[in-house]
C-alpha cells in the first residue's frame, strides 16, 4: 500500500519514509498541500499523513479539499502536528473528516500502531463520522481563521519570548567577551598567538607594554623571531620546531629584544591549536617576565663565587677557574704559574688595631692585587689572610716579576686609621710553575705553598720560587728579599 506524507520539513519526511518503508509500505512525499494534491491526482494512494502548518497550502485545507473531492474523499487522513496541539485544534481537524489527530512527539511503535489501525478500519468499510464538506462554508471559514489566527498569535508570542531570550543571551555573551578581553589584556603575564610561520596573530596589552611596540606594528606584520636576541635565536627556532611537531613546549627560557634594543629575559609555555583536519592553525603562548628572577639568580651566583669581604673570587670558584685554566694550558701546551700570597704578622695587625682594621688591610691587598694582574689572570682569597693568583701563559721568570712588583706595591701601601699612624704591612709570596708530573691544581698549589713557607722561614716580605734549581731567580726579585725554595 502507498502512503502519502505531506510535511514541509525534509527531516520529518525522511524519518517517515524510513519508518514506513521498514514496515513494507510504499511512500511518496510532498512539501505542502498543493504538491500533495498533485500527487494524489496522479497516483493511487491508500493513506494520507499530513502536517498542519505548511506553506502554500496547509494541512487543514488539504484535508478539506480531499474530503470534497469524490476521488479522494475515501482515502483515510491522519493529522500529525507539533504546533496545533490544543483540544480546539483537534476538534477542528476531526470536523474536517480526518481519521486521527496525532500530537508530536510520538514513539515510532505508536505511530505504526495508529497507521495499521486506520488502514484496517478503512478496509473494514469504516468512514469518519462528520465530513467537513457537510459544514456551512461560512462556519468552516470562521473556524479555520480562528485556528490560524490563534496559531499565529501563539507563534508571535513564542517569537517574542525567543527574541527576549536571545537578547539576554547576547548581552551576557557581550559581557563575557568584554570580561575575557579584559582578563586577556591586563593579565600579569604576556599572551600571544602566532601563525605557522611565526607571525603575530594576536598579542595582549601586557606583552605589548613590555616590548614597547603597538599592536598595529606587530600583528600580521612581524615575526616573533624578529624579537629574539641573536644569542637566543637558535634555541628559539629549535623550540618552535619542537612545538609544531609535538604540540607543546614548557618552561623555555630565552631573551627577547624590546623595541628600544634592551633585553627582556622571559620564560614561555606554548601549545598548538589545530583546525578540524588536525592541521596546525596557530600556537598560543604564555610569557613571563623573569628579569627580577634572573637578576636574583645572577646575584646569588655572584655571591656564591665571591668572597664577601674583598669582592674577589672565593676559594671554591678560584679552584673551579683554576681547573679550567689547567685544562686549557695542557690542551694548548702553555705554561701556567701560581702565586701564593700571605700577609706577614697579620695576627699582630688584628691584635694591635682591631679586627676591623685587619679587614681593611685584607680589602686593600685584594684591591692592589686585582689592579696588578691582567684580565686573564685568576685572583682568589683561598684562606683567612691567604690569597692566590693563577697566571695563564706565564713562565716562572715572568711570574716572579709579577710577584715582586706586587710585593713592592704592598710594601709602600698603607691603611689609614682614625687614631694613630696608618698601618703598613708586607706580604710573602711563593711562586710555582706547572710541571709535567704535576697531577693537577692541588700539586701546583702545594708547590707554591712550599715556596711561600720558604719565604716566611727566610725572613718574610720576600718572593720565593719553587724548584728554583730548575728556574733561575729573576734579577728584580731582590729588594725585600728573595730566595730559592
Ligand atoms: N681581620 C681579619 N683577620 C683575619 C681574617 N681571617 C683570618 N684572620 C686572622 O689572620 C691571622 C693569621 O695569623 P697567623 O696564621 O698566626 O699568621 P700571621 O700572624 O700572619 O703570621 P705569619 O703568617 O707567620 O707571618 C689570625 O689572627 C686570624 O684571626 C679576616 O677575615 N679578617
UniProtKB/TrEMBL annotation:
GO cellular component: plasma membrane
Superkingdom assignment: Bacteria
Residue stretches in coiled coil: 142-186
UniProt keyword annotations, A-Z: Coiled coil, Phosphoprotein
Primary enzyme class: transferase
Domain Response regulatory, chain residue ranges per copy: 2-119
EC number: 2.7.7.65
SUPFAM superfamilies cross-referenced by the UniProt entry: CheY-like, Nucleotide cyclase, PYP-like sensor domain (PAS domain)
InterPro entries noted in UniProt: CheY-like_superfamily, Diguanylate_Cyclase, GGDEF_dom, Nucleotide_cyclase, PAC, PAS, PAS-assoc_C, PAS-like_dom_sf
Positions bearing 4-aspartylphosphate: 51
GO biological process: cell adhesion involved in single-species biofilm formation; negative regulation of bacterial-type flagellum-dependent cell motility; phosphorelay signal transduction system
Catalytic activity: 2 GTP = 3',3'-c-di-GMP + 2 diphosphate
Domain GGDEF: 334-468
Record domain PAC: where: 250-302
Protein name (Swiss-Prot/TrEMBL): diguanylate cyclase
Organism: Ferrigenium kumadai
Classification lineage: Bacteria, Pseudomonadati, Pseudomonadota, Betaproteobacteria, Nitrosomonadales
Amino acid at each position: 500500500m502507498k502512503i502519502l506524507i505531506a510535511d514541509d520539513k525534509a527531516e520529518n519526511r525522511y524519518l517517515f519514509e524510513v519508518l514506513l518503508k521498514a514496515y513494507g509500505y510504499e511512500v511518496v512525499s510532498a512539501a505542502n498541500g498543493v504538491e500533495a494534491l498533485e500527487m494524489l491526482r496522479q497516483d493511487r494512494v491508500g493513506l494520507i499523513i499530513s502536517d498542519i502548518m505548511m506553506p502554500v497550502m496547509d494541512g487543514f485545507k488539504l484535508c478539506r479539499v480531499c474530503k470534497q473531492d469524490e476521488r479522494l474523499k475515501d482515502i483515510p487522513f491522519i493529522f500529525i502536528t507539533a504546533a496545533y496541539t490544543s483540544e480546539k485544534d483537534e476538534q477542528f481537524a476531526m470536523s474536517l473528516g480526518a481519521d486521527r489527530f496525532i500530537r508530536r512527539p510520538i514513539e515510532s511503535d505508536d505511530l505504526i500502531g495508529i497507521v495499521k489501525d486506520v488502514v484496517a478500519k478503512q478496509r473494514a468499510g469504516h468512514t469518519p463520522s462528520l465530513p467537513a464538506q457537510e459544514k456551512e462554508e461560512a462556519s468552516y471559514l470562521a473556524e479555520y481563521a480562528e485556528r490560524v489566527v490563534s496559531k499565529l498569535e501563539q507563534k508571535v508570542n513564542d517569537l517574542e519570548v525567543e527574541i527576549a531570550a536571545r537578547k539576554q543571551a547576547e548581552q551576557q555573551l557581550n559581557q563575557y567577551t568584554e570580561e575575557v578581553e579584559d582578563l586577556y589584556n591586563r593579565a600579569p603575564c604576556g599572551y600571544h598567538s602566532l601563525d605557522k610561520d611565526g607571525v603575530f596573530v594576536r598579542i595582549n596589552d601586557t606583552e605589548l607594554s613590555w616590548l614597547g611596540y603597538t599592536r598595529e606594528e606587530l600583528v600580521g606584520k612581524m615575526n616573533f623571531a624578529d624579537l629574539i636576541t641573536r644569542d637566543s635565536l637558535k634555541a628559539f627556532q629549535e623550540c618552535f620546531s619542537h612545538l609544531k611537531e609535538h604540540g607543546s613546549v614548557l618552561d623555555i627560557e630565552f631573551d627577547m629584544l624590546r623595541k628600544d634594543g634592551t633585553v627582556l629575559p622571559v620564560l614561555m609555555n606554548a601549545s598548538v591549536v589545530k583546525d578540524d583536519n588536525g592541521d596546525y592553525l596557530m600556537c598560543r603562548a604564555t610569557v613571563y617576565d623573569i628579569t627580577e628572577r634572573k637578576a636574583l639568580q645572577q646575584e646569588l651566583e655572584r655571591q656564591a663565587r665571591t668572597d664577601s669581604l674583598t669582592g674577589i673570587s672565593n676559594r671554591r670558584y678560584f679552584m673551579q677557574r683554576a681547573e679550567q685554566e689547567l685544562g686549557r694550558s695542557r690542551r694548548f701546551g702553555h705554561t701556567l704559574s701560581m702565586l701564593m700570597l700571605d700577609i706577614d704578622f697579620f695576627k699582630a695587625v688584628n691584635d694591635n688595631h682591631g679586627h676591623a682594621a685587619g679587614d681593611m688591610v685584607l680589602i686593600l691587598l685584594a684591591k692592589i692585587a686585582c689592579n696588578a694582574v691582567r684580565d686573564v689572570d685568576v685572583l682568589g682569597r683561598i684562606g683567612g689572610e691567604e690569597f692566590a693568583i693563577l697566571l695563564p701563559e706565564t713562565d716562572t721568570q715572568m711570574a716572579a716579576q709579577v710577584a715582586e712588583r706586587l710585593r713592592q706595591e704592598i710594601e709602600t701601601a698603607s691603611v689609614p686609621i682614625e687614631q694613630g699612624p696608618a698601618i703598613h704591612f708586607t706580604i710573602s709570596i711563593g711562586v710555582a710553575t706547572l710541571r709535567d708530573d704535576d697531577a693537577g691544581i692541588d700539586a701546583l698549589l702545594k708547590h707554591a705553598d712550599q715556596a711561600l713557607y720558604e719565604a716566611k722561614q727566610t725572613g718574610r716580605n720576600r718572593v720565593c720560587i719553587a724548584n728554583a734549581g730548575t728556574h733561575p731567580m729573576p734579577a728584580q726579585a731582590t729588594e725585600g728579599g728573595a730566595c730559592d725554595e
